[in-house]
Fold these 3 entries.
Entry 1:
Amino acid sequence: MKNYTQVYVKNSYEAAEIYCKAFGAEITREFKNAEDTAYEHCELSVNGEGFLALAEAKNPCDIEVVHKNKWETMTFNVFEMGTEAAVHQAFQVLSEGGVVLEPIGELPWSSCCATVIDKFGVCWWISI
């Protein structure tokens, strides 16, 4: 069984670029809308493994409200990132324009982790 996480965001082209930068991913499949302004579907992979699918949100949420209230309707857990440097890279990229819920630190179950809601309203828990 294959499991892809799918997110729906406003500004899907920018989101794909940011997620590639944050996680060292690459776009492996893409379907753009007729106007070439957004993704109808886009798949990202890391080291050849499917990581994330995304598409343009038809009815995007109000990001300012999400950030102000620090809403976490769902958190994507990205763990076993390999190194603290990888966690720091993802944290730096995802926190730009976002809201940090938990800065990089240590927990009993992880020596290096953080939680951030990115500029698209997607909540990430990242860890080695």
Entry 2:
Amino acid sequence: MEIKLSKYATKLLDVLKDHLQVEDADVVVEEAVIRLYKSYLEKGEITEGRQPTSLIESLNQAGFLKRQFKGRRNALPKQQYDIEAENEEDAWQQMAKRFPEEVNQGFIVEEVESIDFGKLDL
């Protein structure tokens, strides 16, 4: 199974690899999953012994699988909308739900690269 991380998560992984001085992404991911589990315990979001069932679940709960998109309508007025989705198709579908009468005209969705390392606590 291929996992496509958001641009933010990919950059974050690079920063973590550099900070931990490791080349292997698996080591970073394993450490991140352990820390994420401990964080869930501290916040009371999960109980002892109920670990996230998979890496995908952990990444999803952490919000790393969501990517930022800008959606534009092809019909008038041409406005831009912020969309959070897992992939381009999901972003397009969100536009279609928001503007069902404009599905025939179509929409343009593009991934936005926005990196905010101000939230990074190393």
Entry 3:
Amino acid sequence: MYDIRWIRENLETFDEGRRRKGLEPLGASLLALDDERRAAIAKSQAAQERRNAASKEIGAAMKAGDKDKAEALKAEVAALKDTMGAIEAEEKAAIAKLNAALSEIPNTPLPDVPEGADENDNVEVRRHGEPPQFDFEPKEHFDIGESLGQMDFETAAKLSGARFVVLKGQLARLERALMQFMLDLHVDHHGYTEVDPPLLVRDEAMFGTAQLPKFTEDQFAAYPGKATGAADEDHHWLIPTAEVPLTNLVRESIVEESKLPLRMTAGTYCFRAEAGAAGRDTRGMIRQHQFHKVEMVSITTPEQSIDEHERMTACAEEVLKRLGLPYRVMLLCTGDMGFASQKTYDLEVWLPGQGRYREISSCSVCGDFQARRMNARYRTEKGPRFVHTLNGSGVAAGRALVAVLENYQNADGSVRIPEVLQPYMGGKTLIEAV
């Protein structure tokens, strides 16, 4: 979220950032809203100051024996009291109007982010590994899983509808193994602190990481009444990613600079309505309403955040390297990056069944964009400053399962278990049909 003072002082930079994202200039209209806010505040302050001054003058008039003046002043105070409610309401409305406008403005991309309209304009940074060669026609993951008798979309649809799956037997264990392997890697080798956060969060947490208010339709509300405008102080949301609770661990707090960077990881269920994905990936596990993901979050100083972004991306890459999965790193263009991001790398894993690379991780640096929404700061000798926040998938376990099934499939329908996962699978090396 932007500071309106920064926009006022950097109007051309702000509008240029919007242009790079393919958006219309907005600075002038925001300054007009800020002028309204300032005028409303000034009007309210002036009324309050006059009311206080008149109240003091009543005492002086009474002391001087000037009853007529005292009565006139009393009438003025009474009139001001009657109008103060409306003036204060006008002030609150002006502030709310500006804040609402600011809350729906996306972050500005960093200068090295390439300009572009959509995913077709993303830039490949590097590749790792060679796609496997098969002497048979490779299958997609859902054909493999269903043939194994351990991936059931039909029953899931009966239970919950579309975009759900029931995993059974060794496939259920394989997804769990992937989660455990990733968490152990990030904790033991990358220095992240494992956290087990709530899966239900309040409005303030979703606002802090910018899921609300702009992307309400993409979220699952635990109490739908609130989503339609009904008052409900106990309203919660199912988390779309562990980024939400992990990042909000520092909301409304001041962290000691010596403790930064903070690095946290969590393996959780995630829930997404996929409102904008109608007709896309309707079969299989690529785009589910409920899925497992290991998330990484870093809280840093402004000076640390760019290097931390590269480090976080490397941590996600290490997962794929150890799993032996071919992948490429893509730098997202201005038109494809997320709402809160300044710069994003996507890791795309090779899926032989589809014959193309698909996203499996997204690592973003957000600058102080989320910190301002959360009022998350750190202490310096010159006073508190806003932290910088970063988040990245390390990685999506469901999509990692998809990638393992497709890259490690055999002609007879069985699936080899990657070596790093075998200790988590009780020493098994192969998954076969049941």
